[in-house]
Design goal:
135 residues; mainly beta; Jelly Rolls; 0% helix; globular; binds manganese (II) ion
Length: 135
C-alpha cells in the first residue's frame, strides 16, 4: 500500500482528502485483496497507524496480532471477529471492537455482506501488525 502522505504522524493539523491513499492490499494478509485507505502511517514507537478498510463478502484477514492493540470501528455491513480461543462474533455498523496487545485474532466479512471499518493501531518496534497463518 502506498500513500502520498509522508510517513510518520504529521507534526501539525493535516487534512487528508477522501480517497487520497486508497489501494488494494497485498497478498499474504487475507483470503483475498481488499480496499485499504491509509489515514495515518505512523513509523515511530507510540505513533498511530489508522486505515479505512472495505472487504467484499467472505474475505477474512489471516490470523494476526497488534503489538499495542487495535481499535476497530464498524462503518457498514456485517463482519465477524474472533480472538484465539474464542468464538466468531458478528459485528455491525456502530459497533467497536478492542483487540488487546499481542492478542491473536482475525476480522472479516460475513458470506453475504460487505464489511467496512476504521481501525487504529499504534506502532511498536517498527510495526503495528504481525501476520500469521490463514484462518
Ligand atoms: Mn486486527
Amino acid at each position: 500500500m502506498t500513500s502520498d502522505m509522508a510517513p510518520g504522524n504529521p507534526g501539525e493539523m493535516t487534512i487528508r482528502r477522501a480517497g487520497a491513499a486508497i489501494a488494494r492490499t497485498p497478498d499474504g494478509i487475507a483470503s483475498g485483496p481488499f480496499w485499504a485507505e491509509w489515514l495515518l502511517q505512523g513509523r515511530r514507537d507510540g505513533e498511530m497507524t489508522a486505515m479505512r478498510a472495505t472487504l467484499d463478502p467472505g474475505i477474512r484477514t489471516h490470523w494476526h496480532s497488534h503489538p499495542r492493540g487495535q481499535l476497530l470501528y464498524v462503518l457498514h455491513g456485517v463482519g465477524l471477529v474472533q480472538r484465539a480461543g474464542g468464538i466468531a462474533e458478528e459485528v455491525r455498523a456502530g459497533d467497536s471492537v478492542w483487540f488487546a496487545p499481542d492478542e491473536r485474532h482475525w476480522h472479516g466479512a460475513t458470506a453475504d455482506s460487505v464489511f467496512a471499518y476504521v481501525s487504529i493501531q499504534p506502532v511498536q518496534d517498527g510495526t503495528a501488525v504481525r501476520w500469521m497463518e490463514p484462518v
